[in-house]
Write a structure and sequence with these properties.
This protein is of the alpha/beta class. Helices cover about 40% and strands about 15% of the residues. It has a five-stranded antiparallel sheet with strand order 2-1-5-4-3, with helices on both faces. A five-stranded antiparallel sheet has the order 8-7-6-10-9, sandwiched between helices. Strands 12-13-16-11-17 form a five-stranded parallel sheet. Strand 9 and strand 10 form a beta hairpin.
Amino acid sequence: MQSLSNIERARFALENGQRVPSATLSPVVSASWERCRQLGLDPGTEPRDVVVAFADVQRRREDHKGLRRLALAEMQLLHSQIAGSNFLIAFADPDGVVLDTISDQHFADSRGGRSIIPGSAWGETERGTNGLGLAVLLKEPVAIYGREHYFRCHGHLSCMAAPILDANGALVGLLDASCSNEARQQHTHALVRMAAAQIENGLIYQARSNVFIFAFHPRAEYLDTLSAGLLAVSRDGEVTSLNRPGQALLAGLPAAQGCHFEDLFEGRFGAAMDGLLDGGVMRIRDRAGSTVFMVCRQIGTKNLAKNLAKNLAETGRDVLTEQAWPSRSAIATPLAEPDFVCLDTGLRQAMEGLADAVRLRMPIHICGETGTGKELMARHVHAVSGRKGEFTALNCGAVPEALFISEIFGHERGAFTNARNDGAPGLARLADGGTLFLDEVADIPPAAQTALLRFLDSMEVRAVGGQKTRKVDVQIISATNCDLAARVSERRFRADLLFRLNAFTISMPPLRDRRDFAGIVKYLMRVLAPEAAITDAAIERLRQRKWPGNIRELQSALQRALVRRRMAFVDEDSFDKGDELVDQSTCEACSGHALNQFKCREIRSTYAASGGNIAVTARTLGLSRTTVYKHVR
């Protein structure tokens, strides 16, 4: 970092249009200032505030789904390492657009924290000299302290950014730690670089699951550290990936994707494998004459092997024989089977990575229409997590606004009027070691959204009227049938809370789109009447309906059919024609109001599916009878 006098001399020259004195800045910062000048940026003005649309952020997050899971885990760890230091951790895509942030509340509320939000673009052309922008440009770790920033208004910030490269060496994202300049910590830049290196290694394991991965280092005790080289090698010895520490350790050699193991290390590839596949650490010399220690960290999947004898004949290289190929495979986290029908390919794809997500303690968000099985999915997530604690559910729409915070965080005795005499622990504490399921999360009152966001960042609970905080370990699951992005646009739901809740999202498809529709019908029949069969023709007739009430509506239709049937089975004649009529209209009060129409149609269609039963409709939708009556009268 430059001395204060040098920085002030450089800034005086910059802001007065003079030539910046040589040696007052690092070459990286000096070159960046010159580029910004050539772009016509005025260091004394506010930078161009570029924030992409919320839908674009969602698309970018989906494009980097696998990387994002790894990044969020490292961000959580990194934040815990520097917690209380007034920092913000950001994950950005290769364009320098921030996708996720985790921050201390004080910094989040500061001017700098309010400018580093999901969707904000931090390229050099928009924000001048800054850590993220330079890391994108240089593909190298960069630290920009205080007044090294091009724009004067950023002089109170320090930012340390590190690029993330994929298994092919391409830039796929960035990590950044930003803080107020007065609170900077010299070791933070090293922590950010380590976190990025950990993610890069994870990407190599993800992308090269079908090949060998070896770790190597001149000192055996460093093989389990981030300074170890990581080498992905196909079964015929071709190098498919090499991490950055590996490239540094093999500097001067043709260490690049596509080279051969024998181009880098002495001896025959097959002979080296004999020692490595025994699971031990072996000594090997590289082609520059240096000795390194090497160990096998992954053995590729056997079923991806080709005809090895043919490769040997074509390449003349020493490769492993088919008999030598080990039967072990790379470790993968299996997806536990749910205890409900789940054969739809779209739903299965949405659930990919769920086991890893809960292992990394990522909040899970479940969205879908009413009746699609969101709570069943939430209970499945709890089962996948393997947590021993309770599954604790809260219907956010059923709790009065004044009591919402005390319902989650608890309250002390006498904390407010009508408070229980002995106080209450709160659902977050009851769920400690287990799962807290926040159903109908769109209905969380605005004041409670801030408290919930703070809880998600710290996992600390303080009861209403209490002084002490308590740390809890809770898996968060949220669910809604509303469009939260629209709620954000209408300023009815906090954008930062949405970004925290939907770290991993599962969309429950409506019943009309389910490819496993027949399986769902048969499952419900087994539950409702194990002795009764249902014909294929009956299932096909059911399949033609729109099912606005989804599985709940289907269950009601099957119940009525079981009552009407005259034989030991249900056929297409068991269904009343009235069951097929779905009221798509709305009541007069809701007509013309887009936000109310969806809820009104849902109530009226469920009312029709229930055979005009107000009580059943209210119970199905979790509403009062008065509310139902208002919409169907």
